[in-house]
Amino acid sequence: MSLRRMLCGYVLPAFPNMTRLEPGFNYGHGLEFLTEFLDMSPNPEILILDNVSKDECEVDGWASQLKVPTCLELHPKEVEIKKFDGLDFELGAVEFLLKNARVLARILCV
């Protein structure tokens, strides 16, 4: 289901000037939902993920992600993952970020 359809039929604009992105929603809708949200915010220099859930990472969701959002490859210099416990699915998210975020200078897991 498209992010645009999930938000009560509202069409959300792109956020081209947003440099700090901290999506404040439950990622339980899956990794696809997060990917689509990242595509709408093409220039984040700081990306903060709060409570990465097992639901979106099941069956190596991060590792098997086919489409890496362009903004993730080219922009985030810093990623913070809040409520990090070092579980396998969280480590999968870190591995995905380290492999695909080309300009990443710092990753903080708290």
Please explain how this structure is put together.
The model has no long low-confidence stretch (mean pLDDT 76). This protein has helices spanning 3-6, 31-39, 54-57, 70-74, 88-100, and strands spanning 20-21, 46-50, 78-82, 106-109. Helix 2 links the parallel strand 1 and strand 2 (46-50). By secondary structure, the protein is α/β, with parallel strands linked by helices. 19% of the residues are buried. It has a four-stranded parallel β-sheet, covered by helices on one side. Helices cover 32% and strands 15% of the residues. The protein contains five helices and four strands; from the N terminus they run H-E-H-E-H-H-E-H-E.
Task: Please specify the SSE layout and strand pairing.
Layout: H1 3-6, E1 20-21, H2 31-39, E2 46-50, H3 54-57, H4 70-74, E3 78-82, H5 88-100, E4 106-109
Parallel strand pairs: 1-2, 2-3, 3-4
Condensed summary:
This protein has 5 helices and 4 strands; from the N terminus they run αβαβααβαβ. The chain has a 4-stranded parallel β-sheet with strand order 1-2-3-4, with helices on one face.
